[in-house]
Write a structure and sequence with these properties.
The complex is a heterodimer of chains A (637) and B (479). With 637 residues, chain A is of the alpha+beta class. Chain A folds into four domains: 265 residues, no CATH class; 129 residues, GAD-like domain (Gyrase A, domain 2, 2-Layer Sandwich); 109 residues; 63 residues, Arc Repressor Mutant, subunit A, CATH 1.10.10. Helices cover 40% and strands 19% of the residues of chain A. In chain A, strands 1, 4, 6, 7, 8, 11, 12, 13, 20, 21 and 22 form an eleven-stranded mixed sheet that branches. Chain A has a four-stranded mixed sheet with strand order 2-3-10-9, with no helix packed on it. In chain A, strand 9 and strand 10 form a beta hairpin. The termini of chain A are far apart. Chain B has 479 residues and is α/β, with parallel strands linked by helices. Chain B folds into three domains: 95 residues, SH3 type barrels (Roll), CATH 2.30.30; 222 residues, Rossmann fold (3-Layer(aba) Sandwich); 115 residues, Rossmann fold (3-Layer(aba) Sandwich), CATH 3.40.50. Chain B is built from twelve helices and 24 strands. In chain B, helix 5 packs across helix 6, helix 6 packs parallel to helix 11 and helix 8 runs parallel beside helix 9. The relative contact order of chain B is 0.08. The chains are: A alpha+beta (637), B alpha/beta (479). Chains A and B meet through strand 2, strand 4, strand 5, strand 6 and strand 7 of A and strand 4 and helix 7 of B. Strand 5 of chain A pairs antiparallel with strand 4 of chain B, so a sheet runs across the interface.
Chain lengths: 637, 479
């Protein structure tokens, strides 16, 4: 589908969270790094309590989380969390190192520091913060990033503490590790100035690059997270949380636009059918007896376990639930998300996806008959659970369905790895924030600013120069790299393989080889950072010829381990190469003698390389070929 | 009403006039923008304003009242995102967008006595005296006020309603516990006694944690012939935050009132860092042992009376040695406390004249927190002897917190005994202090020797008993 984003009034804002590479956490002196997996830990069990918000109204996000009533278990790894993380001791003074780094990043983004920093408490009641709030402070306002499609404003830059790490979860409990809680994060929020998915990627990349160029931010999985605020004119502003891969941003935006357009067309269809929100009734019925002998083993097993099957009738809704809202997700999937989140049920079964799951045509007829519905016009939803959960699930489904007559509901959604999104929770109101009274306001005085002056972040132009002058890359390669998010990968690899593998080989591998292999249809995404680093390090150590890099990537992508590949493809010794060269010369001796030295080189070279490619370095082969041919002709003279 | 001048404390006049002067200077932005931008007068909390600072920062937000932390020439603005930021008004351009945009300071709890009806059977009273447990933050400003009324609190613990037929909620005092005095103990005892005599099955007292143990002891001595439990409850984390321990501790209180087989004054606080159980500590054996943890309160030289599993609403007695519940409402109030008792901690090189000073000031009792088995530097013994001769009761407790005093073991001890010092066995120094204040208040005119013997006579399990190996905490030794 061709989408004209400008005419739809697409507006996107980015919220980028990046862990800072400080020695200690933001409000205590525990190390700002994750605990090793085998760390000894204690466990503390807690629950959270709902407080009245500032307006005396209950914040929907808070109600939602508390309504789930889950037990929260905190894992406290020794040496990686103290009483501060456990909410058993007031926070210490703010980490000055983190303050300096974030102020210097703010400066690089042309933002102005505030005169006094106030740490706030942002209510978060999912348990990921032991206190029930996250500490966060605006440190600067009003910057901008330049982009070819127009300047994008930076609204706020905040310094905040990272949340605890979820390690396990069940219906009535959740387990968090406290090692991550309190690691300093910088949060950069742009204005909704972004107009196209590609622009969002460029801006996210540019902000990410500036942060990494500070040299003071953490690298690796989970250290950076992107959230998106996406809206179209006729739709709604949707928050999408947790886009971990930069490259996914355009896809997430496109899918969200498609989803909003689909929801609007569902609304139009409902209105066209003459349906009203009041046609969606909250009453549901027990159809366990009908389903007891249905063709679905899954349904029968659950009934045997004591669960019941409940059905909600949706007269006039035939075909609506089956409408696709974005690739692989139907409107029914959206309803299912609500049922899961609010009812704690496993999901729903709706009539537009039936027959399926072993539920046959006959079963379908039986349900329709039992509910007195028409198979041509009506729809229904089944939930398999106990009564209490079904009630909560249907309540959420009914509310969501009624909103379908209005359009797109305001939601916080989570990004899936394929770029689609799923419902997480309603959007929090503005009432979630109040001052952290345990921390005095921090003056941004001239002394602090002077220290910030000392931390100069290189500009992207400086990196371009470094690529050429220090890494020895061609202008072409350097300018390709600097425009591409893959630069991060490159810089990481150069850093890791310093003194082992040359930057040129690294650049060629990820810019040229990876891309052409991808075009060939090789699943290069399967070759992660560590595999790539291993391949390149093998090249640097002489275990693999650089000509064999594409072969190695191809092998790893198809599931072969690099070790196995290296065994089968071991680099040849000098003697082995000489032997091959001699063999080639011998079997082509007539031709060589006829053509003479100069013209024979390319022929021999070609034949030798076709045998040794990947196992021997081309330059080395060339030297040997020339040497052997020269000595051959020298013998004759 | 605040005015702009009130916000910038100190040299108000001068800074304001300077702002104005610069506005009308030739190069001032005043010539670039309309005159509206230059009017600063009467910017007050609650107004929505836009500020362009001399540093080029552009901020729009609601003006918040100044706090003890606000520095001169700075103003705190609440942004639409909910964040607060401080901006400097020096040479700034200020535009008032809307006056009284946000109503501030409306946070007030109801005061006085409220009666709440429930569908249970218990009759309870809830007496709020202040402290973290009833403190509430004003979300805009962050100012903490003891404004969460007791009835608000009951609203937050629905169990109270389920278990109770009637709860009399008394918003009695709004005091942080460091400000409590023996005079306050008197008043609280009277209030609690009033409800017990009118037939309450138990009384819950919300109290700040810092001196809660002192008040608990005071109530234990002043409410004689107690027939039902009195539960003191507090919070280590304020009730505005989702992680507060207030709700959990509070939920345990009606369970204690309902299930307790004992009629004692107890302190109900977290048993561990977890939200798993609350402990009901005997009020005369409990001590705040940590400055911030939820489980700061622990029983010393004794086992807590009971564990309360809040989720299950179950009470498990763990100490069989208690004063049994008679359900009698014939409580006898003996609630006078002398304010002429001092608690004196010994330290190396202590100036012995401190004792003379106390005697000269008319003190009637001194509880010394001595070292080890109950010692104070020998040089002080003369002064102590003089004090006792003048009718002052000098009691000896120990700063080791755990264990008994024993003045027979060392020479210094024997000299102190000979001088007439009263060793208080395993009574906590704070409890000895409260008890002596109570004795001197209610047995006014009795011979010092008689008072001294009352001090060491057990009343409510505050003194004596066997010391088992397990009541001393096992510390962490890295294994």
């Amino acid at each position: 589908m061709e989408i004209n984003y400008r005419s739809l009034g697409l507006r996107v804002g980015l919220e980028i969270h990046q862990q800072l590479d400080t020695k200690s956490k933001l409000f205590c002196s525990c190390p700002a790094k994750l605990a090793p997996e085998d760390s000894r830990y204690h466990e503390v069990v807690r629950s959270l309590w709902l407080s009245k918000s500032e307006l005396g109204e209950l914040d929907p996000a808070a109600v939602y989380e508390i309504a789930r009533g889950r037990k929260i278990v905190y894992r406290v790894p020794e040496g990686h969390a103290c009483l501060v993380e456990l909410d058993e001791e007031p926070p210490h003074d703010i980490n000055r190192e983190a303050l300096l780094i974030s102020l210097s990043i703010a400066k690089a983004l042309n933002a102005k520091p505030v005169d006094e920093i106030y740490v706030m408490r942002k209510i978060v009641v999912d348990g990921s913060n032991t206190a029930g709030f996250q500490r966060t402070a605006i440190i600067a306002l009003g910057g901008y990033v330049e982009d070819e499609e127009g300047v994008v404003g930076i609204q706020t830059i905040a310094l905040e503490e990272d949340a605890a790490r979820k390690v396990a979860e069940g219906l009535d409990y959740v387990v968090y590790n406290l090692d991550r809680l309190g690691i300093p994060l910088i949060e950069i929020s742009t204005a909704p100035d972004i107009r196209t998915p590609e622009q969002a990627l460029r801006v996210a990349y540019k902000i990410g690059l500036i942060m990494r160029l500070s040299g003071r931010v953490k690298r690796g999985i989970g250290t950076i997270r992107q959230d998106l605020n996406i809206s179209i004119e006729k739709g709604e502003r949707i928050e999408v949380k947790g886009v971990e891969k930069l490259e996914l941003i355009p896809k997430v935006i496109t899918y969200e636009v498609v989803r909003q357009l689909s929801l609007l067309s569902i609304r139009d269809e409902l209105l066209k059918r003459g349906l009203k929100p009041s046609d969606v009734s909250e009453s549901f019925v027990d159809v366990t007896e009908v389903m007891k002998s249905c063709g679905s083993k899954m349904v029968r097993t659950n009934i045997e376990k004591g669960l019941r099957v409940y059905a909600l009738s949706l007269p006039g809704f035939k075909g609506i639930l089956g409408k696709e809202v974005c690739p692989g997700r139907r409107f029914g999937t959206e309803l299912s998300d609500y049922a899961k989140a609010w009812g704690g049920v496993g999901g729903i079964i709706h009539s537009d996806e039936l027959p399926a799951y072993g539920i046959s045509e006959q079963d379908l007829d039986a349900i329709y008959r039992h509910l007195s519905l028409s198979r041509d016009k009506d729809a229904f939803i089944l939930v398999i659970s106990d009564y209490e959960k079904a009630e909560r699930a249907f309540k959420a489904i009914v509310e969501r369905l009624r909103y379908a007559f209005v359009g797109v509901p305001r939601e916080t959604r989570g990004a899936n790895p394929d770029g689609t999104t799923r419902y997480l929770r309603p959007q929090p109101g503005a009432a979630r924030m109040y001052p952290e009274t345990d921390i005095r306001p921090i003056r941004v005085d001239s002394m602090l600013l002077k220290e910030v002056e000392g931390l100069v972040i290189p500009k992207p132009e400086d990196v371009y120069r470094t690529l050429i002058e220090e890494h020895g890359l061609s202008r072409d390669l350097a300018s390709q790299l600097i425009r591409d998010p893959i630069l991060h990968l490159y810089l990481d690899l150069v850093e890791e393989l310093r003194g082992v593998t040359s930057p040129q080989i690294i650049a060629t591998t990820i810019v040229v080889h990876m891309k052409s292999l991808k075009r060939e249809g090789v699943d290069v995404d399967k070759v992660g950072y560590s595999e790539l680093a291993k391949i390149l390090s093998a090249v640097g150590r002489g275990e693999l010829a650089k000509e064999a890099i594409p072969e190695a990537i191809r092998a790893v992508a198809s599931g072969t381990s690099l070790e196995d590949f290296l065994k089968s493809f071991k680099a040849m010794s000098m003697e082995e190469i000489e032997k091959v060269v001699e063999d080639v010369i011998t079997s082509n001796i007539e031709y060589i003698r006829a053509k003479g030295l100069d013209k024979s080189v390319s022929l021999v070279m070609g034949k030798v390389m076709s045998i040794v490619r990947g196992r021997a370095d081309g330059a080395l082969v060339s030297t040997i070929v020339k040497k052997k041919l020269q000595s051959l002709f020298a013998e004759r003279e | 009403m605040f005015s702009f001048n009130d916000l910038i404390t100190g040299k108000r006049r001068r800074s304001r006039s300077r702002v104005f002067t610069l506005y009308f200077a030739v190069n001032s932005p005043c010539f670039l923008y309309s005159a509206v931008w230059c009017v600063v007068a009467n910017v007050k909390p609650g107004d929505l304003i836009r500020v362009i600072t001399s540093g080029g920062l552009v901020v729009e937000g609601v003006v918040l009242p100044s706090t003890e932390f606000t520095s001169e020439k700075h103003i705190v603005l609440k942004l639409s995102s909910g964040y607060n930021v401080g901006v400097s008004l020096e040479n700034a351009i200020v535009e008032v967008i809307a006056e009284d945009y946000l109503k501030l300071g409306a946070l007030e709890g109801s005061q006085g006595v409220t009666v709440i009806k429930g569908k249970g059977e218990l009759r309870m009273a809830f007496v709020s005296t202040g402290g973290t447990i009833v403190s509430k933050v004003e979300y805009e400003t962050g100012a903490v006020k003891p404004a969460l009324s007791a009835s608000d609190l009951v609203e937050f613990v629905p169990e109270l309603r389920e278990l109770a037929e009637e709860i009399v909620v008394s918003d009695f005092m709004r005091k942080l516990s460091e400000n409590m005095t023996p005079e306050d103990w008197s008043r609280i005892s009277e209030e609690v006694g009033k409800y017990l005599r009118s037939g309450a099955d138990g009384v819950i007292v919300a109290h700040g944690t810092d001196t809660m143990a002192y008040t608990a002891a005071a109530l234990a001595f002043s409410l004689r012939n107690l027939g039902n439990p009195v539960v003191l409850v507090g919070a280590q984390r304020s009730s505005d935050r989702p992680s507060t321990d207030a709700s959990y501790n509070l939920k345990a209180c009606p369970v204690i009132v309902k299930e307790a087989p004992f009629a004692e004054v107890v302190v109900a606080m977290h048993g561990s860092s977890d939200d798993i159980y609350v402990l009901a500590h005997r009020g005369v054996r409990v001590r705040k042992m940590h400055s911030s943890r939820r489980d700061a309160f622990q029983s010393v030289n004794d086992l807590p009376l009971a564990k309360v599993y809040v989720r299950e609403r179950r009470l498990e007695v763990i100490n069989r040695n208690y004063l049994p519940r008679t359900r009698s409402s014939e409580v006898l109030l003996m609630n006078k406390f002398s304010s002429k008792v001092a608690l004196l901690k010994h330290y190396p090189g202590i100036d012995c004249e401190i004792i003379d000073y106390l005697v000269d000031k008319g003190y009637k009792g001194v509880v010394i927190e001595g070292t080890g088995l109950g010692h104070i530097r020998e040089e002080c013994i003369d002064g102590i002897r003089r004090a006792i001769e003048e009718g002052v009761i000098v009691a000896m407790s120990t700063q080791t917190i755990f264990g008994r005093v024993d003045l027979d073991v060392y020479t210094t001890g024997r000299k102190l005994l000979k001088a007439g010092v009263v060793p208080v066995d395993d009574m906590l120094p704070e409890v000895a202090f409260v008890k002596l204040s109570w004795l001197l208040g209610n047995y006014h005119g009795e011979e010092p020797a008689k008072i001294g013997s009352r001090l060491t006579t057990n009343l409510v399990n505050e003194i004596g008993g066997t010391q088992s190996l397990s009541v001393f905490p096992r510390w962490y030794h890295g294994d």
